[in-house]
Write a structure and sequence with these properties.
By secondary structure, this protein is of the alpha/beta class. It is 36% helix and 24% strand. The structure holds N,N-dimethyl-L-histidine (AVI). N,N-dimethyl-L-histidine (AVI) binds next to strand 10.
């Protein structure tokens, strides 16, 4: 019996594999197993972003809270199983908390956890794909808003889509709203590769799980042993790329469609862009947000940036 299948998964896989450079959008890495594996990744020694951002939030929270605005509603984009939210809620004591997530299960869990830990903060969960239309609950209509987009998830969007997404956040939250966003910094290639190709093989399992998902949900017959995980740094595009590379000639069918991969050919499965300080600020400006303040750890590995949603204006 096949699992319940999102028709968009089938469409994206069939279309992506037929492209001259085969690729599958990274969001399909996150089925239940993929989300568990990603949680495991965040605990690896070599995966510095989660640890660094959490420590940064802990250390800088009083300063962030002082600048981020009083009496606001916090709107978190892709709340997932975030462990960072309580730090923000504890320090800011917002008038409301609005977690937005595509996964109803995750959303209910995180809303229940926040409810239990912060009984005075009203929680209004919104089950939605934050890249599409989002309707905020009427209860926060009159409140100033602070968007929260941690984890360097913005890095998983190519700059053109990242700019669109930031503009979309501005439309959702409104002019004058604020956004606290986490962005991973450029750093030596060896550290980046270690973070995305860990010695324990957890990231490899996370990437290969996509092929298991194709077999499970789309009835594919991919020989998973014929593919291996590969993480590489693409310097020109400023990003780590994840690929599934065929280790020998192999072929498979999905939904009656046949695909052939020669040894060495790959399926591109994820981008993770890394930004320098100016690149990060420029991206925000292009997305309609004026940077107000930023915080980094001592090593400069990760940045948290606070920005304000700009009014449309005629620029000189
Ligand atoms: C979710 N996202 C920010 C992670 C990242 O670092 O790009 C996903 C990830 N992929 C492999 N390791 C972690």
């Amino acid at each position: 019996m096949l699992d319940r299948v999102d028709p968009a998964f089938r469409t994206d896989v069939l279309a992506g594999l037929a492209e001259p450079i085969p690729s599958i959008p990274a969001r399909w890495l996150y089925d239940r197993r993929g989300s568990e594996l990603f949680d495991d990744i965040t605990r690896l020694d070599t995966y510095y972003p989660t640890r660094t951002e959490t420590a940064l939030l802990e250390a800088k929270m009083p300063e962030i809270a002082a600048l981020a605005g009083d009496d606001c509603a916090i709107v978190e984009f892709g709340s997932g199983s975030s462990t960072k939210t309580p730090l923000l809620l504890e320090a800011m004591r917002p008038r409301a908390y609005v977690p937005i997530d595509i996964s109803g299960d995750y959303l209910r869990d995180s809303a229940a956890r926040v409810d239990a830990e912060f009984p005075d903060i009203p929680v209004h969960p919104v089950e939605a794909d934050f890249t599409k239309e989002v309707i905020l609950p009427g209860a926060i209509d009159s409140m100033p808003r602070l968007g929260f987009f941690p984890g360097s998830t913005i890095g998983n969007f190519v700059p053109r889509s990242a700019t669109d997404l930031l503009r979309h956040f501005r439309d959702i939250l409104g002019v004058g709203s604020r956004l606290l966003i986490g962005m991973d910094r450029v750093k030596p290639v060896e550290r980046l590769i270690a973070a995305y190709d860990d010695p324990q093989g957890v990231t490899a399992e996370f990437n290969l799980n996509l092929l298991h998902r194709i077999n499970r949900e789309l009835g594919g017959d991919v020989d998973i042993a014929a593919f291996e995980h590969c993480a590489l740094w693409h310097d020109m595009n400023g990003r780590v790329e994840m690929h599934l590379v065929a280790t020998r000639d192999t072929g498979f069918s999905i939904d009656g469609q046949r695909f052939a991969f020669a040894a060495g050919q790959s399926i591109h499965t994820e981008n993770s862009h890394k930004y320098g300080p100016r690149g990060a600020r420029l991206l925000l400006l292009a997305g309609g947000w004026t940077p107000l303040a930023e915080w980094t750890d001592d090593a400069g590995d990760f940045a948290l940036i606070l920005a304000e949603a700009q009014r449309n204006r005629f620029a000189p």
